[in-house]
Design a protein that fits this description.
Blueprint (H helix, E strand, L loop, with lengths): L4 E10 L17 H4 L14 H4 L10 E7 L6 E4 L5 E4 L11 E8 L11 E8 L6 E2 L12 E3 L2 E13 L2 E12 L8 E6 L8 E7 L2 E14 L5 E10 L2 E11 L2 E12 L2 E12 L3 E12 L9 E3 L4 E2 L8 E13 L7 E12 L17 E12 L4 E2 L3 E2 L7
Length: about 400
Amino acid sequence: MQYVLSCIFVVWLLLQPSVASSQALRFPPQGAAAAGQGNAFAAQADDASAIHYNPAGLSQVEGIQVAFGTTLLGGSIKYKSPTGIDTRGDFGGSIVFPAPSHSYVSANLQAFGWDGMSKVTVGLGLTSPFGLNTRYPVDGPFNTAVTSAALPLVDIKPTIAYKIHDDVSLGVSADIYTFAGFLGEGQVEQRQVGSGALAGASVELSGKGTGAGATVSLLYTPLRNGDGKPVASVGLVYRSQAVVPLSGSLLVNGAKVADARTNLVLPQIYTGAIAVWPVRTSEREWKLELDVEYVGWKSNRDLDVHLSTGGVIPQPQQWKTVPVVAIGTEYKWLNPEWLPHWDVAVRSGYSRTENPVPDLTFNPGTISLSSNTLSIGAGFLCKGQGRFLGMVPCGGTSAL
């Protein structure tokens, strides 16, 4: 068995404010290699993050692979009302906390000595693909709508990929959405300053729950080079809608006044992707990819809160389905003379996202804008006889 250590750096250049949450609740970056390419990765999907981007691609990952990462986000939210009133918020602090993170582990069953199961690869992912914290001044113009909101939702993804043919693989994963205490309060929260009879009071809605969906995907590789590596691939991915029933409480000035419940609807997503490698030799690789998604936010009609007292707190949504277009590229040097036993990659990408939230139901707790995002990144993969940081062996029996 061979272990590989990798060191990956990604830099995001945000061309418009609040682009990190510009897809409403959705947070797309769930892997360093993909993020560096603007998340155009569903047709490449050749590392453990395929669990998220295209489960079928997991069939390309040999042996056992473990990957984890986090995205450090900062900055502020600025809003100027039509009347000229300015307010500024943030994502829960100078750096988002909890930071959106992901972890993956995959294993081709042949790695366990089951040679007859070489076409089967299994994996498990833990991601945070929806929700970021937002916070506004308690004395700001939004205070009767929201002063803070948090959605520490995680997605647990048991996954299996099967290579039905040398050129065709299928993948299936469950999506178990839930809340985890180690990612904050372990529940969704929204706070605001009361109005009317509750004028000036601190009002808080909180709840938690678990919902499930599924992802099914296909990876088709019609063209390969002489070494059997893909030079053209097509990826198709379908993520089902999921409903997370939330149960919790309505609190006023910290005291519970009623039980509360609502349903959080997460969208179905259709993804089509194509990748081509104009250059793919034993020394260099150059990939270009185009991904197109349709995110079905239309199913998010309302987030009305039903109270045990019989009352209802209306929260209309009426969001709309929107396309997301991503273009990415990656150039690799394989075991170059100037850095032997390493692969070095540079990456770049661009994505365009439309705003799913209509002006009529705008909520400052969910920052959503049409946006253009440019990303650049670099990756360093240590393998074979290489040593990570000059000390840790990356391959061979000494790495066990």
